[in-house]
Amino acid sequence: MSLTLLTLLQQFVLLLAALALFLSFVLLSQTRLIAAIRVFAWQGALVAAVTLTVALAGHAHHLYFSAALTLGLKAMLIPAMLHRMTRRLGLERQSETLSRPALVIMAAVVLVIFSYWVVEPMVANGLAFTRNIIAVSLAVVLIGLLMMVFRQQAVAQVLGFMSMENGLFLAAVSATAGMPLVVELGVAFDVLVAMVLFGVFFFQIRESIDSLDVDRLNRLTETEEGR
Amino acid sequence: MSAWLVALLQALLYPALAPLLVGWVRKVKARLQNRRGASVFQPYADLRKLLVKETRVAHTASELFRVAPYIVFVATWLAAATVPLVALDLPIAAVADIIVLVGLLALARFFLALAGMDAGTAFGGMGASREMLVSALAEPAMLMAVFTLAMTAHSTSLQSVMAHHLADGFLLRPSYLFAFGALVLVALAECGRIPVDNPSTHLELTMVHEAMLLEYSGRHLALMEWAAQIKLLLYGVLIVNVFFPWGVGASFGALALGSGLAVVLLKLLVLGALLAAGETVLAKMRLFRVPGFLNLALLLALLGLLSHVILEVGA
């Protein structure tokens, strides 16, 4: 597929998707929590912009609502909640030290190539535009997963989880021209409930181990108790 | 006009215009800092002053110290001559492509670093080692960004890249956006501009480029500074002409060349003002954070390549 065959709006969707992928990389290597939350908010705004562009291109009216919902929830409400939580936990100035950051970035690059390789034979050639967007979305999902695996800080892991959700939403919007409104409302509500639960968990974890470094959960064994 | 004559004219324009760009950046920066600043033609006066002054050479220095300014100047100038400034379809494109350009710049940098170490002062050696650290990280990013462009145009010649971009018309290319970001970061690092090095310091422990020139005086210093100014102009022209090639002269008529020159000067004025604004807002970063900065450039270039393959070709 050549870029010249696409309409300007489709090119714009590709551009926004590529930027969302770039923000995933930034999120992965950002050590300061407040800055990472801000990056996450921008990624949510990009996904909302993709939804809006798809709505404009396809004249799908319910997607306008969905774009507004995404913008309000992912770019404003959830980042604001996370921001408030980090302030209440006293973590604004904390910056995590990453072990081997360059290696993790390389792993993320490999994940991008892998997701393209996986998606390539899946979709018929006529749908090249959809397939390319799905490859990028899958890469965003996998990088979110990588972030959950390699970060030790609980708040950063939640950011990874939320950016995975961003990737899924990107795939859903661009590949299927939007899900039914009921499904979207349900997903949005789920994400919100998950966010509230994560908040409760943060405070629980901190109560029990005095830190949000989840690696220290390994030490809560019976043997240490007995000594 | 014959093609070679235009190529020669364009090659002469580079050293003639380079001090003007530096003067313009300094002027805008001064205005942004509420100073009046020197005239935009001040760098010409500085170069003239250095050229007529007596040249002194440290008695510990070898022959290399004397020839290095000439090699650095000529290599940078030749590299600049391969970048289309006012017109496309120059015969020099058949001689040199982007890889030759990067190679010539590397040659200039190699002799600059050698000359820095030659006099045997502590500052020179320190500056040379820092310069090599920066360039070792910047060069892969630069090559990767350039390859992104080359893959789009199926050619490593700068003119074909520009011609391809012009022929395509207006397209939103994610890969160009990433390559643009990478090239801007590399240009800032290579030209010693603010987040990496401060061009207006001469007596600071943190200096990189100036530390290598401390032992130079007279016409040697003039050539070295002129070469640095040409390098800044080269990167500026590379960025504006590759990513925004509209307005470049398509034929060798006087009208096309004149309008091409006017348009490129306008684009460079805007770029210089943006550079000055960026330098006013940002602070110089610690040397040990420079690798992180250049890793970002490499990542951007890599994403440019990947997004070209995934989003733009994708069979």
Describe the secondary-structure layout:
The complex is a heterodimer of chains A (227) and B (315).
Chain A: H1 8-29, H2 33-58, H3 61-88, H4 101-119, H5 128-150, H6 154-176, H7 181-209, H8 222-226
Helix pairs in contact in A: 1-2, 1-5, 1-6, 2-3, 2-6, 3-7, 4-5, 5-6, 6-7
Chain B: H1 3-32, H2 42-52, H3 63-81, H4 98-118, H5 122-153, H6 158-168, H7 174-190, H8 209-212, H9 218-243, H10 254-281, H11 290-313
Helix pairs in contact in B: 1-3, 1-9, 1-10, 2-9, 3-4, 3-9, 4-5, 5-6, 5-7, 5-11, 7-9, 7-11, 9-10
Write a brief caption for the model.
The complex is a heterodimer of chains A (227) and B (315). Chain A has 227 residues and is mostly helical.
What can you see in these coordinates?
The complex is a heterodimer of chains A (227) and B (315). Chain A has 227 residues and is mainly alpha-helical. Chain A has one domain (3-91, 100-226). Chain A has helices spanning 8-29, 33-58, 61-88, 101-119, 128-150, 154-176, 181-209, 222-226. In chain A, helix 1 (8-29) packs antiparallel against helix 6 and helix 2 (33-58) runs parallel beside helix 6. Chain B has 315 residues and is mainly alpha-helical. Chain B is built from eleven helices and no strands. In chain B, helix 1 (3-32) crosses helix 3, helix 1 packs parallel to helix 10 (254-281) and helix 7 (174-190) packs antiparallel against helix 9. The radius of gyration of chain B is 19 Å and the shape is globular. The mean pLDDT of chain B is 90.
